[in-house]
């Protein structure tokens, strides 16, 4: 066992610490099962020696079936106890692992989602976590119960005839070498299988999410081909794994058969020259046959063990992923909303190109700043630095004179509300989506926020009003209704800083006018950063900041910038030309 595998085992074993008492009770139940294995050949050996010679009275003969029934009764109770307790611990451990992964998913930096696909994350939580728990369940049951059974049966074999037992033991190292030779290949195959499984999950997730695009653009054949390729690749790895695992079983059975054959020959020879009785011989052979089943299970353990270890690599890499730094000072009061960017430069991890270059900008409390420019100019990157989705490579950003890096994340983000062009809603009620993040939702505030976002008529037409379920990402609502619901969520939060990234992009003209009025009311007295490609929506901004290639090239009001005949004026003419 290599160092990494041993470390993983120690970590898994530590995860069972809360269930130590149940594990001890399970081991005792397994020991009871092992002892019943030994009792059975002993009874049959006694029966062969005394039951057919007329030596026993009728009363004594009745004891034998009573003993046999008692053995199986004890065995049944022990087996049930083992199965129940192992399932109880396994399901609890599965919940624990999934909870750890999900907690990590909620705490990783935004850049994590650039490197990891949603399919892989889903696959890790649902499938790979299950693989680990199944491996633990099978491994503990097999290692403890079958190892105890093997030891008990071997001890009895030594007691009955130690010479014949040595023949059986001599073949065990050969079986151990066989298992070891298969282990390395199984580990690699299972890692590849888990990777392809994640890729297949990603294809399914994308196909489900993009069903409209697939139909409109005729992508059914392409998606079917992608699915078939991944599915066939997964089958290939599954078959190779099956071959590696299945080849172990017949070889181990052949070795066991060789051992039994040798023992029978030696026992027959020994019976001619010693006092070995028929009962002893029968007891010995039955014990050897009983020994085959736990030995086979121990040999077959290698397959699920390697599958589980491969899953551990994936699950633990996700659990050990770096979390967002949450330390810092909690703000004692509601922020005023003064934002200051000092020589801020930023580039995305792994990219050499600078996204923002020496940005200097002072935003006064309650001021509305519009960010405009061509796509890729750095507008969204700039506003993403405010809630610390990313951190600047150099320079600093201050809120009310305090560097953002010194403010606790939860405290900082409590001061910010955001509405983006990519609306994200949850498969819950309208009310729950409006009050999202509030542990104690206020019904009156929910209704006021809905009214301010001009959702009153929409809610009135819904079958259950505010308690209507809106479906996956609000698919039961129109695009404009979804956008207004996201705006209502920002209104409900009542934060001193607003980030509006194309907040009216999905609205028709009538809805846009209604929501624009609601936004103007919302923005009053709040620091607002607005990103808008439709320049008509930001003409009333206090100042317009024009970004080009990551730099601020112009700052001024709408009228001032038009008079300068610079970048903004060119953008304005291009948008309204013709």
Oligomer: single chain
Helix percentage: 55-70%
Question: Helix/strand-derived class?
Answer: alpha/beta
Q: Count the strands? A: 10
Number of helices: 20
What is the straight-line distance between the termini? Answer: 74 Å
**Major sheet description:** 6 strands, mixed
What would the principal axes of the Cα set say about the shape? elongated
**Strand percent estimate:** 5-15%
As laid out across the biggest beta sheet, the strand order is: 6-7-8-3-9-10
Alpha carbon gyration radius: 35 Å
Average residue-wise pLDDT: 81
Return residue spans where pLDDT drops below 50 for at least 5 consecutive residues. none
Helix and strand succession? HHHHHHHHHHHEEEHEEHEHHHHEHEEEHH
Account of the 3D structure:
It contains 20 helices and 10 strands. It is α/β, with parallel strands linked by helices and about 575 residues long. The protein has a 6-stranded mixed β-sheet with strand order 6-7-8-3-9-10. Strands 2-1-4-5 form a 4-stranded antiparallel β-sheet, with no helix packed on it. The protein is elongated and about 120 Å long. The model has no long low-confidence stretch (mean pLDDT about 80).
């Amino acid at each position: 066992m290599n160092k990494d595998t041993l470390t993983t085992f120690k970590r898994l074993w530590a995860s069972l610490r809360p269930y130590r008492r149940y594990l001890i009770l399970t081991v005792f139940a397994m020991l009871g099962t092992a002892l019943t294995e030994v009792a059975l050949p002993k009874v049959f050996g006694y029966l062969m020696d005394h039951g057919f010679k007329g030596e026993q009275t009728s009363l004594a003969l009745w004891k034998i079936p009573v003993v046999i029934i008692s053995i199986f009764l004890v065995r049944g109770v022990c087996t049930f106890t083992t199965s129940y307790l192992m399932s109880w611990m396994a399901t609890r451990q599965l919940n624990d692992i999934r909870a750890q992964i999900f907690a990590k998913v909620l705490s990783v930096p935004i850049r994590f989602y650039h490197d990891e696909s949603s399919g892989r994350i889903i696959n890790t939580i649902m499938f790979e976590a299950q693989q680990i728990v199944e491996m633990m369940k099978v491994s503990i049951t097999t290692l403890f119960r079958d190892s105890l059974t093997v030891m008990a049966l071997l001890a009895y074999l030594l007691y009955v005839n130690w010479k014949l037992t040595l023949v059986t033991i001599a073949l065990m190292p050969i079986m151990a070498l066989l298992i070891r030779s298969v282990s390395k290949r199984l580990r690699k195959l299972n890692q590849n299988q888990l990777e392809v499984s994640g890729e297949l999950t990603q294809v399914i997730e994308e196909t489900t999410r993009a069903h409209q695009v697939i139909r409109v653009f005729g992508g059914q054949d392409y998606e079917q081909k992608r699915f078939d390729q991944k599915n066939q690749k997964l089958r290939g790895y599954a078959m190779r794994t099956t071959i590696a695992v299945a080849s172990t079983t017949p070889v181990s059975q052949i070795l066991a058969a060789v051992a039994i054959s040798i023992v029978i020959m030696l026992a027959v020879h020994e019976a001619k020259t010693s006092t070995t009785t028929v009962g002893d011989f029968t007891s010995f052979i039955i014990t050897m046959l009983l020994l085959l089943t736990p030995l086979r299970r121990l040999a077959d353990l290698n397959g699920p063990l390697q599958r589980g270890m491969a899953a551990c690599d994936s699950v633990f890499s996700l659990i050990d992923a770096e979390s967002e730094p949450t330390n810092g000072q909690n703000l004692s009061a509601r922020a005023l909303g003064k934002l200051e960017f000092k020589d801020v430069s930023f580039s995305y991890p792994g990219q050499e190109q600078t996204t923002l270059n020496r940005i200097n900008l002072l935003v006064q409390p309650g001021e509305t700043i519009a960010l405009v420019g061509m796509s890729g100019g750095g507008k969204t990157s700039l506003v993403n630095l405010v809630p610390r989705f990313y951190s600047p490579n150099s320079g600093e950003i201050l809120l009310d004179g305090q560097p953002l890096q010194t403010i606790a994340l939860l405290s900082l983000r409590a001061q910010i509300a955001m509405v983006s062009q990519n609306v994200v809603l949850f498969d819950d009620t309208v009310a729950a989506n409006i009050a999202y993040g509030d542990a104690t939702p206020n019904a009156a505030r929910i209704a006021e926020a809905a009214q301010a976002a001009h959702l009153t008529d929409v809610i009135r037409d819904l079958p259950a009003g505010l308690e209507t379920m809106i479906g996956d990402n609000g698919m039961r609502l129109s695009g404009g209704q979804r956008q207004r619901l996201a705006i209502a969520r920002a209104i409900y939060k009542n934060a001193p800083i607003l980030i509006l990234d194309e907040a009216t992009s999905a609205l028709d003209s009538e809805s846009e006018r209604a929501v624009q009025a609601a936004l103007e009311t919302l923005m009053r007295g709040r620091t607002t950063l607005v990103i808008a490609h439709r320049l008509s929506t930001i003409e009333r901004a206090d100042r317009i900041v024009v970004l080009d290639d990551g730099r601020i090239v112009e700052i001024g009001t709408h009228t001032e910038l038009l008079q300068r005949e610079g970048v903004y004026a060119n953008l304005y003419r291009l948008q309204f030309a013709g």
